[in-house]
Amino acid sequence: MTNQPTWLVGAIAVAATLAPQITHAACDPGEELIRFSHVTAESGHPKGEAATLLANRINTELDGRACMEVYPRSSLFNDDDVLDAMLRGDVEMAAPSLSKFEAYTLAFRIFDLPFLFEDILAVEEFQASPQGQEMLLAMSDQGLLGLGFWHNGMKQISANVPLERPSDAEGLMFRIQPSAVIAAQIAALGAESQAMPFSQVFDALESGQVDAQQNTWSNIYTQGFYLVQDGITETNHGIIDYLVVTSSDWWQGLDDGLRAELEQIILEVTHERNRFAFELGELARMRVRQDGGVIRRLDDAAREEWVAAFAPVWDQFRDEIGSDLIAAAQAAEGGI
Ligand code: LMR
């Protein structure tokens, strides 16, 4: 880490001690309260920006009938307890990453297969296919309903040692999301993994509880992970994408007209904000670089080594995920 700007270090330290920032509308009695819980930054981040736009539109266009409060940065719930909270009626909407749904469905495991999706356009196309749209209903028997997919970006690997080839990761302890496919990736590197909530990752990296993690540029920048890592290796080996999720009971209990209008607003916000996910990621990558973060790009030979290192993961999960589904995802590689 070189040229680390003091303002940023200071800002991160201050942010850690401040009360969480909450985008609260002044909800009036009689309005349908919609609490939206998420774990990332509220600005400069695809999910944070989408949640803010959603709240702004609902609070303007449905004023008097509905009111959305956004709780960013895990200020209401962590991803590992938000779905239970939703089923209890303690929160109405969230957008956890697709790797966080293992306890409810295995349908999203496909999104964690390494080097399956070339880019977010391929993810978008697969999600728009009949197989992708069916996944919105994957948890309907458990009372959870998907309302749309929000994009973040491709995953990179950061570590507290220079990481160029897969063998450099051997023996490291990685923080991971709670996904068996991701755990298998780390095992394939000869490394160890520990699942932990997003809100704990910075401290765990800083204290050395874990050595490494994998995430998107917008998460690496807005959480300041690059400040406490040797560098970031641009593997683009996986994706982080989100499911906007709600409780089926709560959703079905809404007045028909209100539900239809909410559905339309969510659709429009999804289209609008998903177009900017890539740009926000690139901006974050540039900021990491400008702040002195070390970015290691892979040449073709090194990329092939990473692809080969992760290949056993495909063998482990191919049957369970289903060759047909994998073929449908691969067919989306042409882009749109
Ligand atoms: C993570 O836990 O690393 C991400 O899923 C966080 C997020 O919501 O982007």
TrEMBL record:
Q: Does the keyword Transport apply?
A: yes
Q: Where is the signal peptide, in residue numbers?
A: 1-25
**InterPro entries listed in its UniProt record:** DctP_fam, TRAP_DctP, TRAP_DctP_sf
Where does it localize? Periplasm
Keyword ATP-binding assigned to the entry: answer is: no
Ordered alphabetically, the record's keywords are: Periplasm, Signal, Transport
According to the lineage, what is the superkingdom? Answer: Bacteria
Q: Which GO terms describe its biological process?
A: C4-dicarboxylate transport; transmembrane transport
A GO cellular component term found in this entry reads: outer membrane-bounded periplasmic space
The UniProt entry's sequence similarity note says: Belongs to the bacterial solute-binding protein 7 family.
Matching NCBIfam families, A to Z? dctP, TRAP_S1
What is the name of this protein? Answer: C4-dicarboxylate-binding periplasmic protein DctP
Source organism lineage? Answer: Bacteria, Pseudomonadati, Pseudomonadota, Alphaproteobacteria, Rhodobacterales
